[in-house]
Structure formats: C-alpha cells, structure tokens
Amino acid sequence: MKNYVAIVTGASQGIGRSTAIRLARDFSAIVLAARNGDALEEVAKAVKAAGAEPLSCALDLSQVQASEMLIEKALDRFGRIDALLNIAGAVPQRSISSR
C-alpha cells in the first residue's frame, strides 16, 4: 500500500492523530483534516517522521464547503484517494459531488 493516499479527519488529537501516524507507516501520503491548524502541523511532523508525505487541511467539516474543499485539495495534490477515515465529530449529511 506504499503508493496509496489516506484522508484522516479529526487528525489533530486522540484517535485521529494516532490513526494518521500509524497509517503513515503503510501509506505514501496522509491528508490530515481538523479545525486546529497548529495541532495539525505537529501531527504532520510525526506523519513525515513515520514515512509518509502529509498534507494539512485546517477546516471545519461541519461546513459542506469544507468537505468539498478537502477532497479537492487531496486530489489536486496526490491525484487519488484510496482511504477515508472519518474520525471527526461532525460531518454534514450531504453527498460530495464527483470531480
């Protein structure tokens, strides 16, 4: 799975943080999403140290536009999304349009 990309929401702390760092051992890139940008930067350092390229996205996923922006940023940077781990506390109930 070394050429795969994962998105981890709620990545700034707790289970999301731990999950992102663990996935960095097996995935080539981890997209980190949470509201706390400063905490995300710390997680990004740990992800990089574990072997994956991080992309930090500080945003509030309770906003529909934020989820669309997250997908767009991931695809723009890496060209693919292979896994999504939704650990954030609130995500809107609306499907994301395909690109």
Largest sheet, strands/sense/barrel: 4 strands, parallel
Q: Which structural class best describes the helix and strand composition?
A: alpha/beta
**Succession of helices and strands:** EHEHEHE
Radius of gyration: 12 Å
CATH superfamily: NAD(P)-binding Rossmann-like Domain
Mean pLDDT: 91
Shape: globular
Distance between the termini: 24 Å
The domain count comes to 1
> Quick one: how many beta strands?
4
**Could you list the spans in which at least 5 consecutive residues all have pLDDT below 50?**
none
Per DSSP, the total helix count is 3
* CATH topology descriptor: Rossmann fold
The proportion of residues in beta strands is 15-25%
CATH architectural designation:
3-Layer(aba) Sandwich
Q: Walk across the major sheet and give the strand order.
A: 3-2-1-4
Helical content band = 25-40%
CATH class: Alpha Beta
Describe this structure in words.
The chain is an alpha/beta fold. The chain has one domain: NAD(P)-binding Rossmann-like Domain (Rossmann fold, 3-Layer(aba) Sandwich). The chain is 39% helix and 21% strand. The protein is built from three helices and four strands. It has helices spanning 14-23, 37-50, 64-78; strands at residues 5-9, 29-34, 53-58, 83-86. The protein has a four-stranded parallel beta sheet, with helices on both faces. Helix 2 links the parallel strand 2 (29-34) and strand 3 (53-58). Helix 1 (14-23) packs parallel to helix 2. It is globular and about 30 Å long. It starts with a strand and ends in a 13-residue tail after the last strand. The model has no long low-confidence stretch (mean pLDDT 91).
